[in-house]
Design a protein that fits this description.
Length: 377
């Protein structure tokens, strides 16, 4: 099979490799995640919250991190394995009544970060995460004087926790490093005392520009993935081509075998001699059976006079020749008339319900289908 360039399976594999991930990203949650991230960039309150959870994360919002990794961390460090356990733990943090600024910072900063982690772990929705955080942020703002006050209070509490639990500081987040990073970014750009409008943003309120950006991000991510895994795509295209060829060969062979079954008559006008008997016409009747056996009766005529007859019993088969890209009809002689040797033959052929054309080298023949009770003269 010779593929036109536009019909090459590689194009369809590439298209599927791009469109498939796009649909997965679009309907599998990635679209909503990116829209939420873009909404965070536009929402000053969410930007303010970054200055809180950033003390633990360095600015990373865990709501958009890998779900499996987050669930592993929640299980290992918090003992949280599902939504119910998260809700119970968060309720305890929210209900605490801190007696000092370090205790307040330790409770509320962790609560904000935990709500974002729960969203990333898909224990709660993004909207639910912000709803829970909205309860905590005003407490932080009225309790602490500024960002520095919040950061240093948390640092004191963290150091106490490390010391009391005999924990290696190298195995936990570097709060000092995170605070230094926040000083140069979020804390510099976002006023600690800004007004906090805690109205939740609904999905239908996402900006059109954000929706277009999401579509572009998803398309770019899918194209990037296709480029990254191009060797796999070529391999997939090769597999598809092989499957198509194999399928076509099987279907063609099966169809041809069915069409070959029946009674066929051939005739060739030619001058020659056989056993010193001249002839000018050769006719042959071939009966092809479903069990892949066949009988051919070959007769030579001079005018209306029969000169010679040879009856041959065959076994036959049909195969697809990959080199010639054609069907091959093979005949193996099992029994012949006395005085004639058995031989094998192979022909490239094309068959339809009424006509069979076959050839070997330069010799080409045609037979037409006749009724089962047909008799040669």
């Amino acid at each position: 099979m010779d593929w036109p360039l536009w019909l090459s399976p590689l194009w369809y594999v590439v298209a599927l490799a791009i469109v498939g991930p796009m649909l997965y990203y679009y309907f599998g949650g990635a679209r909503q995640r990116v829209l939420e991230q873009l909404a965070d960039e536009r929402d000053p309150v969410r930007g303010w919250a970054k200055g809180v959870y950033g003390i633990i994360t360095g600015g990373t919002d865990y709501a958009y991190e890998d779900k499996r990794k987050l669930r592993a961390v929640l299980r290992e460090w918090w003992g949280i394995n599902d939504t119910g356990q998260f809700q119970a733990f968060f309720s305890e943090l929210r209900a605490e009544q801190p007696r000092s600024k370090p205790e307040a910072a330790w409770c509320w900063v962790r609560a904000v970060n935990l709500a974002r982690m729960a969203a990333g772990a898909q224990f709660i929705s993004y909207a639910e995460s912000w709803r829970l955080i909205a309860v905590i942020l005003p407490r932080i703002q009225v309790t602490f004087a500024d960002w520095e006050d919040l950061g240093q209070s948390y640092l004191v509490a963290r150091d106490d926790w490390v010391r009391e639990n005999d924990i290696n500081p190298q195995g936990v987040e570097s709060v000092e490093h995170n605070i230094n990073g926040l000083r140069a970014t979020v804390w510099r750009n976002v006023a600690f005392g800004q007004q906090l409008d805690l109205t939740l943003r609904r999905g239908k309120e996402y900006a059109t520009a954000d929706k277009l950006r999401v579509l572009w991000y998803i398309t770019a991510a899918a194209i990037e993935g296709a480029i990254r895994f191009r060797s796999l795509l070529v391999g997939a295209a090769f597999v598809i081509v092989a499957a198509v060829f194999l399928g076509q060969a099987f279907l063609s062979s099966t169809s041809a075998e069915n069409d070959l079954v029946g009674t066929w008559l051939g005739e060739l006008v030619e001058a020659g001699s056989i056993d010193d008997k001249k002839y000018d016409t050769r006719r042959w009747l071939m009966v092809m059976r479903p069990d892949r056996t066949a009988t051919r009766t070959m007769r030579w005529y001079l005018g209306r006079q029969k000169q010679e007859e040879v009856v041959t019993q065959y076994e036959w088969s049909v195969n697809y020749d990959w080199g010639d890209k054609a069907l091959v009809w093979r005949l193996v002689c099992k029994q012949n008339s006395p005085g004639y040797e058995c031989e094998k033959a192979a022909y490239r052929f094309a068959v339809n319900p009424s006509e069979l054309r076959y050839s070997s080298g330069r010799a080409a023949f045609t037979m037409r289908k006749v009724s089962a009770d047909y008799r040669m003269p």
